[in-house]
Inverse folding.
C-alpha cells in the first residue's frame, strides 16, 4: 500500500462528510495568534525541547520522557521526530493561522512543498507524506507551568478523492500552547537558509525563543537538542559548527548573532525582536539591583 493510500484510509470516517457542513454546536474551535508571511509562529515548548530533535534517528519511543527546558515536561509515543517533521508541522500551523483549528484545512502536496521552498519532485512528495504520517501517529503529553496538551500533533489527514486535495485537521487544544508568551515568531528566511543543518535549525529556534538568552551548558544544550553525540569533544565540535552556520545565516539577513563558549557554557548575544525588546524594557523597569544570569545545567 502506498503512503498516500495509507493516509487516505486514516480519514475514511470523516472523508464522507461534506466539507461545507458547519461544525457541531459547542465544538471547541480556536484561532491561533497572528504572524506575518515572513514568520512562522511556533510554540516555545517545541523550540526548547527535544520533541523535534536535531538527530536523524528513527527510533520508536513509548511514553518516553523528552528532554525539555524546565518547568515544561513532555512524554512522547511514536517514531522520533526531527527538524524535517518540524518544518511540515509549523507549515500546517502557518496555513491554518487565519482560520480556526478544528476545521478542515484543504491543501495539497504542491502547496505544502512550496511553503517550504521545496520543488514538487517525487522524492520530496514521498518525504512529505512520510512526515505527515509520523505526525498523525504521535501521542504527546505536554505539561507546562500554565498550559498543557495531550493528543496527536495531527488529528486527521486524508485525501478528498473528488478534488484530490489533502485535508488536514489539527486539534483546537493546540492553542493552549500559544499563550501570551508561549510562542515565538521565527524568521522563516533564516530557518530555510539552514536547511539540511538540523542542529543549526534547532539552535536558531531555541535562542530566538529567548529575548535575552542566559548561558547554557554544552551538555544541557545538546540534550535538549536531542543530540546522539556520546563524545563530549565531538559534541562541542558539532555545536561550534552549527553555531557558526547560524551566525552566518543571521548576518546574511542583518540579524546580529554572536556566541562564545566559556567554562563549558554557551553565551549568546543577539538582536531581540520588537516584542522581545519591549518585554526586556518592561522587565528592566521593574527589576532592582544588578542584573543576574540564570544558568541551566
Amino acid at each position: 500500500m502506498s503512503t498516500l493510500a495509507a493516509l487516505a484510509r486514516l480519514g475514511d470516517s470523516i472523508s464522507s462528510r461534506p466539507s461545507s457542513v458547519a461544525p457541531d454546536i459547542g465544538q471547541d474551535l480556536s484561532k491561533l495568534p497572528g504572524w506575518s508571511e515572513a514568520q512562522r509562529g511556533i510554540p516555545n515548548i517545541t523550540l526548547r525541547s527535544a520533541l523535534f530533535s536535531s538527530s536523524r534517528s528513527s527510533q520508536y519511543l513509548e511514553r518516553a520522557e523528552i528532554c525539555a527546558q524546565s518547568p515544561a515536561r513532555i512524554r512522547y509515543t511514536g517514531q522520533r521526530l526531527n527538524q524535517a517533521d518540524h518544518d511540515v508541522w509549523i507549515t500546517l500551523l502557518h496555513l491554518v493561522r487565519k482560520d480556526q483549528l478544528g476545521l478542515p484545512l484543504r491543501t495539497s502536496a504542491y502547496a505544502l512543498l512550496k511553503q517550504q521552498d521545496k520543488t514538487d519532485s517525487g522524492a520530496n512528495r514521498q518525504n512529505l507524506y512520510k512526515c505527515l504520517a509520523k505526525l498523525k501517529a504521535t501521542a504527546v503529553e505536554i505539561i507546562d507551568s500554565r498550559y498543557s496538551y495531550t493528543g496527536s500533533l495531527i488529528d486527521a489527514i486524508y485525501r478528498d478523492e473528488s478534488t484530490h486535495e489533502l485535508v488536514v485537521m489539527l486539534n483546537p487544544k493546540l492553542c493552549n500552547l500559544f499563550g501570551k508568551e508561549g510562542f515565538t515568531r521565527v524568521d522563516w528566511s533564516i530557518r530555510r537558509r539552514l536547511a539540511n543543518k538540523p542542529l543549526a535549525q534547532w539552535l536558531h529556534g531555541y535562542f530566538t525563543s529567548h529575548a535575552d538568552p542566559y548561558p547554557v551548558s554544552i551538555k544541557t544544550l545538546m540534550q535538549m537538542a536531542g543530540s546522539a553525540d556520546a563524545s563530549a569533544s565531538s559534541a562541542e565540535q558539532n555545536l561550534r559548527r552549527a553555531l557558526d552556520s547560524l551566525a552566518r545565516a543571521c548576518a546574511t539577513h542583518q540579524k546580529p548573532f554572536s556566541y562564545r563558549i566559556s567554562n563549558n557554557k554557551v553565551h549568546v548575544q543577539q538582536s531581540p525582536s520588537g516584542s522581545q525588546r519591549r518585554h526586556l524594557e518592561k522587565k528592566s523597569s521593574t527589576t532592582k539591583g544588578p542584573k543576574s544570569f540564570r544558568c541551566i545545567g
Notes: The longest strand covers residues 60-66.
